[in-house]
Design brief:
single chain; 307 residues; alpha/beta; Rossmann fold; 2 domains; five-stranded parallel beta sheet; four-stranded parallel beta sheet; Asp/Orn_carbamoylTrfase_sf; ornithine carbamoyltransferase activity; EC 2.1.3.3
């Protein structure tokens, strides 16, 4: 049996993405209608990194669908250290129905998935954060009703969140601009991949190194931390980001009703000022809430329970 997976945002076609969005909306509006849908199912959460939203939203989301989730943290399973990844994957495939993985290396998820012959979900890796990006576009769809004529602007580090947002914009045909310091670029292979997809979908992808240029005419301004988890040794790179702070001055360069998004956790006073994240333009906590709804939809879809 070939199982669907959510390791990369391109694991889903456009029609599948909108099917997941529609399901997430229905789950959000009437959660009790789905409370026993995954009764008897078991989900593993293998996390090499700390987590708040990803852990809680998947754990509670799966439980409220009637399933059982088990958390396996850094001290519980040391993949590739205490035991080979392929051995852990094949054993857990006999216990569990699906796995969520939050790893330092994307290669770890790919290797695990090769031997775990069931749905695998990328809860974050150094390459992508697909569940976050899917949730963010779902939140935008809630706000605007559709993506036609909308522009998304990302300002900050060329990290895994930007990669997934960029790839998904190209797949959905959404105009996307981003500004990063020249010293902190998005992966060139990811950008090339997005540009190839954008040619097919007519999305407009624009790269800048000046935040003001990137956010001009934007409906959404998005940012993330300047130094990601696991990159604390790279804290010196903060010096490149001072012009990239999202503040009222930068917001004023976008549309008057621009929305501000952040995947959290936020370092207030660094990548975003307190008055922006707490201000009228912010939809940060709507994003955070929607993680649980979208991830419940992903689980239902991957486990084939969306009839």
């Amino acid at each position: 049996m070939n199982y669907k997976r959510c390791i990369d945002v391109y694991d889903f076609s456009v029609s599948e993405i909108f099917e997941i969005f529609d399901l997430a909306m229905r789950v959000k509006k009437n959660p009790l209608a789905y409370k026993n849908l995954l009764n008897g199912k078991a989900l593993g959460l293998i996390f090499e990194k700390p987590s708040t939203r990803t852990w809680v939203s998947f754990d509670i989301g799966f439980s409220t669908l009637g399933g059982h989730a088990i958390y396996l943290g850094p001290q519980d399973i040391k993949l590739g250290v205490r035991e080979e990844i392929r051995d852990v994957a094949r054993v857990l495939a006999r216990y569990l129905d699906a796995i969520v993985m939050r790893t330092f290396s994307h290669k770890t998820i790919i290797e695990f998935a090769r031997y775990f012959a069931k749905p695998v979900i990328n809860g974050l890796s150094d390459l992508e954060h697909p569940c976050q990006a899917l949730t963010d576009y779902f939140t935008m769809l809630e706000i605007f009703g559709d993506f036609k004529g909308r522009k998304i602007a990302y300002v900050g580090d060329g990290n895994n969140v930007l990669s997934s947002l960029l790839l998904l914009a190209a797949r959905l045909g959404v105009d996307f601009s981003f500004a990063t310091p020249e010293e902190c670029l998005v992966r060139r292979s990811t950008l090339m991949r997005a540009r190839r997809e954008a040619k097919r979908t007519k999305a407009k992808i624009s790269e800048f190194h000046n935040p003001g240029q990137a956010v001009r005419g934007a409906d959404i301004i998005y940012t993330d931390v300047w130094v990601s988890m696991g990159e604390e040794h790279k804290s010196s790179k903060r010096k490149y980001f001072k012009p990239f702070q999202v503040n009222q001055k930068l917001l004023s360069k976008a549309k008057k009703d621009v929305r501000f998004m952040h995947c959290l956790p936020a370092h207030r006073g660094e990548e975003v000022t307190n008055d922006v994240i707490e201000g009228k333009h912010s939809v940060v906590f709507d994003q955070a809430e929607n993680r649980i709804h979208v991830q419940k939809a992903i689980l239902i879809y991957l486990l084939g329970m969306n009839a």
